[in-house]
Amino acid sequence: MGDTASDRAARATPDELERCVEQFLLYLRNVRQLSVHTLAGYRRDLLSLQRYCATQQRHSAAEVTEADIRNWVSQLHRRGLSGSSIQRGLSAARSLFNYLGREQGRPRNPAAAVQAPRKPRKLPKALDADQVNKYLVFDSDSNIARRDRAMAELFYSCGLRLAELAAVNIGDIDRGARLLTVTGKGNKTRTVPVGTVALDAIDCWLQVRPHRAEDDDGARALFTSSQGQRISARNIQARLRLQGRKAGMHQDVHPHMLRHSFASHMLESSGDLRAVQEMLGHANIATTQIYTHLDFQHLAKVYDAAHPRARRRDKE
């Protein structure tokens, strides 16, 4: 007959799980040669698991069940640990039991099927219309300023991704139809409308765009450096951030912030989720639906400011 759980518990010394943890940490230090910082993280997470198991009278690694791991995770969640912290602890537990499986012939890993609570999805940051207008005021008419203004206007006009804007060629714009063809994720192309303001800004840039090009790619590119090379994504990010500081913005402005602003403003005005999905190039409408939360935030602010019974008045 095989050992029962009570038999194993009777033979297990109260510090057997602790010894397994220490043995595993020595392996990580001496064989895997992990950093002191990483080892400290493993020790902290596994000590948390060990303490929980002690409260459940689980003193041997063989006694730890999947239910124990789930209850430990639930306890961490109730204590307010973030999803990433819980996931890190679970990863340490899985590694421990995988190690014991190799060293002691224990194929069962009680942490293998347990998942951390999902992280709450962060809402993208977006500028309101007044902030966008403030940002898009350029106080210079230099060649670089014309280019930077055209890039910023095109980001906000079409909701482009950073890589999409960097890849735009002069021939991708249909000036008469006011359309832009872009290549997005997965090499998928889509055609989006371009606003008149953005087109005017692009025309101003094309008047001073360097005619000399370093190569064929630079000759095709809509946005180039002063040396005639296609402008890099990193340079675009830096130029947008610099313009934000010049405009007196209280936060760094980045390409995705302008894309988020485009999406939230379009959805706020039209309510057409499918159209916004198409313009953003989202394969799944669930990705676009996150912008409905931004819209609800706006509605909530309007409601709180306008409705006479939205908030309880302070006692006089």
Task: Give an overview of the whole structure.
With about 325 residues, this protein is mainly alpha-helical. The protein folds into 2 domains: about 5-105, Tyrosine recombinase, N-terminal domain (DNA polymerase, domain 1), CATH 1.10.150.130; about 130-305, hpI Integrase, Chain A (Orthogonal Bundle), CATH 1.10.443. About 60% of the residues lie in helices and about 5% in strands. It is built from 15 helices and 3 strands. Strands 1-2-3 form a 3-stranded antiparallel β-sheet, with no helix packed on it. The longest helix is centred in the N-terminal third of the chain and has 22 residues, at about 85-105. The protein is elongated and about 75 Å long. The protein starts with a helix and ends in a 10-residue tail after the last helix. Residues about 5-15 have low confidence and may be disordered.
Q: What fraction of residues sit in β-strands?
A: under 5%
Main sheet: strand order: 1-2-3
Strand-pairing-aware structural class = mainly alpha
Topology as a string of helices (H) and strands (E): HHHHHHHHEEEHHHHHHH
Low-confidence runs (pLDDT<50, min 5 residues)? 4-13
Number of strands: 3
Overall CATH architecture of the largest domain:
Orthogonal Bundle
Main beta-sheet annotation: 3 strands, antiparallel
Helix content: 55-70%
Cα radius of gyration in angstroms: 28 Å
The number of distinct helices, counting runs of at least 4 residues, comes to 15
End-to-end gap: 79 Å
